[in-house]
UniProtKB/TrEMBL annotation:
It comes from the Bacteria. It catalyses: pyruvate + phosphate + ATP = phosphoenolpyruvate + AMP + diphosphate + H(+). Catalyzes the reversible phosphorylation of pyruvate and phosphate. The keyword rRNA processing does not apply. This is Pyruvate, phosphate dikinase. Its EC number is 2.7.9.1. Belongs to the PEP-utilizing enzyme family. Gene3D superfamilies: 1.20.80.30, ATP-grasp fold, A domain (3.30.1490.20), ATP-grasp fold, B domain (3.30.470.20), Phosphoenolpyruvate-binding domains (3.20.20.60), Phosphohistidine domain (3.50.30.10), Pyruvate Phosphate Dikinase, domain 2 (1.10.189.10). One of its GO terms (molecular function) is pyruvate, phosphate dikinase activity.
C-alpha cells in the first residue's frame, strides 16, 4: 500500500484533489511543488495511517516506515544535506494536516534532527552559533512539550529565570553560550521530571514526533473543534515531514502569513503580516506584533515599522507573483504561509482562506466580474447559515461614547456583554443566559469552548492572523485583537483601558468592524442588505426552483420578511394575534364561555380585530400568496394560570370564583399537545372557524379594494388526520365565503388546504387530497408525532442522545430524512396522484434549515416557509439545492 507521497524540486506524487488522502496541507504542498513553486522538499504520510496508529496500540506498519525512510533519502538528495549528519545536517518540520482545516488544534514539531552533535554542524553551516543553539533549545522545548508531555510553562520558567539572572530583557539579548546553558538546563529538566534523557537519536526523534501528531488527533481541543464543526472523527490527520527553512537567520530572513484578498472586507488587495528574524509559529501565536507586507497596508495602519515591500523588495515581488498565480490557479482567495531564508523565498502552505461572510460575498461577486468563476459557483461559495453574520448589528455611527481602547478589526459586527477573563467563566455565564465578552491577553486553542460561548472577543495582543482572529472569523463572532492601549491584569482580574479600570461583570461593547472598544452598552443599527449581498441573492433567485415564503404572524414580521425577499406568507399562526394587548381578555371570555351564545358574543368582539390584522397582512403582501391557519393550540394555553389572574378574569366575566375554577378544571388536559387542539377545536366550536373565515374574507375584500391587487387567501386547517375532519371544516369555510360574497358583492377566490402533521394524514394523503387544494408539512408536529417525542420536552434528553451517539442531529432542528422524510415523500407522492396540481410546502422550523431545504428540493416541494430572518438563508440554500 502507498502510505507516503513525496513532493519537492518541481515534482510531486499527489495533487490538490487528493485532500481526502493527504489532508489539506499535504495536498496543497504537492500542488504547489508540481507547479514549480519554491517548496522545501518533503513527504506526506496519508491520513488513513492515523486510524491504524490508534487501532494498533500506537504503532505503525513496517512498510510505512520503509517508505518514510525512502522519502527522507530523497529529501537528502534534493537538499544535499544528511539527516543526523555531522556535516550539513538536514532538519525537519513535522506537522499535522487534516482534510478540513483545524487551525492550531493539533501538534507541530520544528527543528527536528538537532542533537549535541548536529547543533555544532548547524552553527558551522549557518556561520551563526547563536542561531544554532537557539534552534536547539526551541526544539527541546517543543519536543519536550508535544512528544514527551512536559508542560510548556516549565521550560518558560527556566528561560525567564536565566534571563533575569543575566539581566536580559529579550530573548534576542541571549548569546550562543547562554543558549547553550539553557539547553543543558532543559535537558536536565527532562531527566529530572521523566527519568529519561532527551533522545539524541534523530530517528527516535522523528518517530516520536510522527506518533505525537497522530496522537494529537484525539486531544481534547481537537475533539471539541471537530464537534463544533461537524468533522467526522474517522477522517484522521495526515502527517507532513518537510525540510526546515529558517526565517530566523538574521535580518534578511523573515516569516509571514498572507491572504490574497482582505479576509475581513474581501477587498482585492494582498493582505498579510510578517516578522523579521522569526520562526514558524511566531506570527500566528501573536507574541510579537507583526509588520505589514504591503506598503499600502502599512500606511493605513500608521505603523512606523517598514513593510516587507520596502524591506525586501525582491522577495516581495516574487511573492506577489506567486499570490496572483495561486489565486488564478485555485480560483479562490488563498491563505498562505511563507518563509524567507537569507533573501530566498519559500512557500510553506496555501489553502482556501477563511473569511467573513461579508468578504465571502465580495470575493464571490468580484471573481464573477473578473471572469474567474461562474454565477453558479459564486452562489455555491456562500455557506447559507453564515448569512446570519450579515444580520449582525453594528454600532450606530452617530453615537459618541467614550472609547476606552482600540485594536484591530479582526471579525466584524458589534457585541455588548459583561467582561469575563477565562473561557470557563464564559461558558458558565452563557449557561445562565448572560451575554459576555471574553477578554484575554491572547487566546489559545484551549479557549475554544469559551470563545464559542461569548458574544465577542477582545485581546490585547496579536494581529489579524492570530488565533483569536482566525477562530472568531470562522465562528462569525465579533472580535478585536491587539488592543495594545489596553492592559489585562489576569492576577487581579481587571481590564485597564483609557481612563478607566474595569472588573469582571462590567459591561463593554466591542466593534469588530472598526476595532474600537467602548464602555457600557451602545445603540446598534441593522446592516444594509444591498450591494454584493443583493447581487448574489439575485443570482440565487434566478437559479432556484422553490419559492421562499415566510412564517409571519404580525405586520412587523411580514414587513421584515418582505425586506428579506419573502415571496408570500406560508404560515400565519392566528393564535399569536390573540395574545396581544387586551385581546387575551376577550379570548379568555370566549374560551370560558359556558354556551355557544356566550362564545359568539366574545367572537363578535374578536372579529374586527382579526379583520384589521388580516387586512394589513394582505396589504403588505400586495397580491403575494398568504396562508392563514385556523386556530390551532390547545385552549389551556390561553387560560389564566396564577391565582391573581384567575381572580381578575373571574371578576371581569362576572362569574363566581368557584364556578370559574370548575370551568378551568373542566378544560384541563393531561396531554394537551395531543388533545383538544387543531381542527378538533373547529369541529367542537365551528363558530370559531366561522369567525376566522369571515375575518379573512372580509379582509380580502377590503385589501383588494385598497390596493387594487387581487388577494387569494389560502386557508389552512391544522392537525388533520381524517378526510372527514377536513370536509367538515371546509364546509364551514365555504359557507362563510358564499355569505361574504353575497354581502359584499365581491367574489373572492380562495384555496382551502391542510397541514400534514400527523402520520395518518401522510399515509392517507391520496384521500385527504380529494378535499385539499394544498398541503403544508408542519414538520414540528410531524416530527413530534412520528418520533413520539414531545417537542416541548425533547431538549431534556436530545443532548444526551447526541452525546451518546444515539442520534446525530436534533430532529427538531434538522429534518429526520429517514423517518419523517419518508412520510413527506409518501404524502407528496400520494397527494399528487389524486391531484396533480396539489401545491406542496413546508412551514415547520425545518423550512429555514439548509440541509432540510435540500431535502425539500429533492422531494419536489413547491415552497419552503421560514421565520423572517432565515428568508435570505433559505433563498440561498434553495438555489444551491438545484445545482
Ligand atoms: C408545525 O407543526 O410544524 C407547525 C408549523 O405548526 P406549529 O409549530 O404551530 O405547531
Ligand atoms: Mg403544528
Amino acid at each position: 500500500k502507498k502510505w507516503v507521497y513525496t513532493f519537492g524540486n518541481g515534482a510531486a506524487e499527489g495533487r490538490a484533489g487528493d485532500v481526502a488522502i493527504l489532508g489539506g496541507k499535504g495536498a496543497n504542498l504537492a500542488e504547489m511543488a508540481s507547479l514549480g513553486l519554491p517548496v522545501p522538499p518533503g513527504l506526506t504520510i496519508i491520513a488513513d495511517a492515523c486510524a491504524l496508529y490508534h487501532k494498533n496500540g500506537r504503532d505503525l506498519p513496517e512498510e510505512l516506515k520503509l517508505q518514510v525512510m525512502a522519502g527522507l533519502h530523497g529529501m537528502e538528495i534534493v537538499t544535499g544535506k544528511t539527516f543526523g549528519g555531522s556535516q550539513s545536517p538536514l532538519l525537519l518540520s513535522v506537522r499535522s494536516g487534516a482534510r478540513a482545516s483545524m487551525p492550531g488544534m493539533m501538534d507541530t514539531v520544528l527543528n527536528l534532527g538537532l542533537n549535541d552533535r548536529t547543533v555544532e554542524a548547524l552553527g558551522h553551516d549557518a556561520g551563526d552559533a547563536r542561531f544554532a543553539w537557539d534552534s536547539y533549545r526551541r526544539f527541546i522545548q517543543m519536543y519536550g512539550d508535544v512528544v514527551m508531555g512536559l508542560d510548556h510553562e516549565m521550560f518558560e520558567e527556566i528561560l525567564e529565570d536565566e534571563k533575569g539572572r543575566l539581566g536580559h530583557e529579550y530573548d534576542t539579548d541571549m548569546s550562543a553560550v547562554e543558549w547553550q546553558h539553557v539547553v543543558s538546563l532543559y535537558k536536565k529538566l527532562i531527566e529530572d521530571e521523566l527519568g529519561e534523557a532527551f533522545p539524541q537519536d534523530c530517528h527516535v526523534q522523528l518517530w516520536g514526533a510522527i506518533g505525537a501528531v497522530f496522537a494529537s488527533w484525539t486531544n481534547h481541543r481537537a475533539v471539541t473543534y471537530r464537534h463544533l464543526h461537524n468533522i467526522p472523527g474517522d477522517w484522521g490527520t495526515a502527517v507532513n515531514v518537510q525540510a526546515m527553512v529558517f526565517g530566523n537567520l538574521g535580518s534578511s530572513s523573515a516569516t509571514g502569513v498572507a491572504f490574497t484578498r482582505n479576509p475581513s472586507t474581501g477587498e482585492a488587495e494582498l493582505y498579510g503580516e510578517f516578522l523579521v528574524n522569526a520562526q514558524g509559529e511566531d506570527v500566528v501565536a501573536g507574541i510579537r506584533t507583526p509588520q505589514s507586507i504591503t506598503e499600502a497596508a502599512r500606511l493605513v495602519s500608521g505603523s512606523d515599522k517598514p513593510s516587507m515591500e520596502k524591506l525586501m523588495p525582491e522577495a516581495f515581488s516574487e511573492f506577489l507573483a506567486i499570490c496572483k498565480r495561486l489565486e488564478t490557479h485555485y480560483r479562490d482567495m488563498q491563505d498562505l504561509e511563507f518563509t524567507i531564508e537569507r533573501g530566498k523565498l519559500w512557500m510553506l502552505q496555501t489553502r482556501s482562506g477563511k473569511r467573513t461572510t461579508r468578504a465571502a460575498m465580495k470575493i464571490a461577486v468580484d471573481m464573477v466580474e473578473e471572469g474567474l468563476i461562474s454565477q453558479e459557483e459564486a452562489v455555491c461559495r456562500i455557506e447559507p447559515s453564515s448569512l446570519d453574520q450579515l444580520l449582525h448589528p453594528t454600532i450606530d455611527p452617530g453615537i459618541s461614547r467614550p472609547i476606552i481602547g482600540s485594536g484591530l478589526p479582526a471579525s466584524p459586527g458589534a457585541a455588548t456583554g459583561e467582561i469575563v477573563f477565562t473561557a470557563e467563566e464564559a461558558v458558565a455565564a452563557e449557561a445562565e443566559g448572560r451575554r459576555v465578552i471574553l477578554v484575554r491577553i491572547e487566546t489559545s486553542p484551549e479557549d475554544i469552548h469559551g470563545m464559542h460561548a461569548a458574544e465577542g472577543i477582545l485581546t490585547t495582543r496579536g494581529g489579524m492572523t492570530s488565533h483569536a482572529a482566525v477562530v472568531a472569523r470562522g465562528m462569525g463572532i465579533p472580535c478585536v485583537t491587539g488592543a495594545g492601549s489596553m492592559r489585562v491584569d489576569m492576577r487581579n482580574k481587571v481590564l485597564i483601558g483609557v481612563g478607566c479600570m474595569l472588573k469582571r461583570g462590567d459591561i463593554i461593547t466591542i466593534d469588530g468592524s472598526s476595532g474600537r472598544v467602548l464602555k457600557g452598552e451602545v445603540p446598534m443599527t441593522q446592516p444594509e442588505l444591498s450591494g454584493d449581498f443583493g447581487k448574489l441573492m439575485e443570482w440565487a433567485d434566478s437559479l432556484r426552483r422553490m419559492t421562499v415564503r415566510t412564517n409571519a404572524d404580525t405586520p412587523a414580521d411580514a414587513r421584515a420578511a418582505r425586506a428579506f425577499g419573502a415571496e408570500g406568507i406560508g404560515l400565519c399562526r392566528t393564535e399569536h394575534m390573540f395574545f396581544e394587548g387586551d385581546r387575551i381578555h376577550v379570548m379568555r371570555e370566549m374560551i370560558l364561555a359556558e354556551s355557544e351564545k356566550g362564545r359568539r358574543a366574545a367572537l363578535d368582539e374578536l372579529l374586527p380585530m382579526q379583520r384589521s390584522d388580516f387586512t394589513e397582512l394582505f396589504q403588505i403582501m400586495h397580491g403575494l400568496p398568504v396562508t392563514i391557519r385556523l386556530l390551532d393550540p390547545p385552549l389551556h394555553e390561553f387560560l389564566p394560570k396564577t391565582d391573581g389572574e384567575i381572580v381578575e378574569v373571574a371578576a371581569a366575566m362576572g362569574m363566581p370564583q368557584t364556578v370559574f375554577r370548575q370551568r378551568l378544571d373542566a378544560l384541563h388536559e393531561f396531554n394537551p399537545m395531543l388533545g383538544h387542539r387543531g381542527c378538533r377545536l373547529a369541529i367542537s366550536y365551528p363558530e370559531i372557524a366561522e369567525m376566522q373565515a369571515r375575518a379573512i374574507f372580509e379582509a380580502a375584500v377590503a385589501a383588494a379594494r385598497i390596493t387594487g391587487a387581487p388577494v387569494v387567501p389560502e386557508i389552512m386547517v391544522p392537525l388533520v388526520g381524517l378526510r372527514s375532519e377536513l370536509d367538515y371544516v371546509t364546509a364551514v369555510i365555504d359557507g362563510v365565503a358564499a355569505a361574504v360574497a353575497q354581502e359584499t358583492g365581491m367574489e373572492i377566490e380562495y384555496l382551502t388546504g391542510t397541514m400534514i402533521e400527523l402520520p395518518r394524514a401522510a399515509l392517507r394523503a391520496h384521500v385527504i387530497a380529494e378535499a385539499a387544494e394544498f398541503f403544508s408539512f408542519g414538520t414540528n408536529d410531524l416530527t413530534q408525532t412520528t418520533f413520539g417525542i414531545s417537542r416541548d420536552d425533547a431538549a431534556r434528553f436530545i443532548n444526551t442522545y447526541q452525546r451518546k451517539g444515539i442520534i446525530e442531529r436534533d430532529p427538531f432542528i434538522s429534518l429526520d430524512f429517514d423517518g419523517v422524510g419518508e412520510l413527506i415523500r409518501i404524502a407528496a407522492e400520494r397527494g399528487r396522484q389524486t391531484r396533480p396540481e396539489l401545491k406542496l410546502g413546508i412551514c415547520g422550523e425545518h423550512g429555514g434549515d439548509p440541509a432540510s431545504i435540500h431535502f425539500c428540493e429533492d422531494a419536489d416541494l413547491d415552497y419552503v416557509s421560514c421565520s423572517p430572518f432565515r428568508v435570505p438563508i433559505a433563498r440561498l440554500a434553495a438555489a444551491q439545492a438545484t445545482l
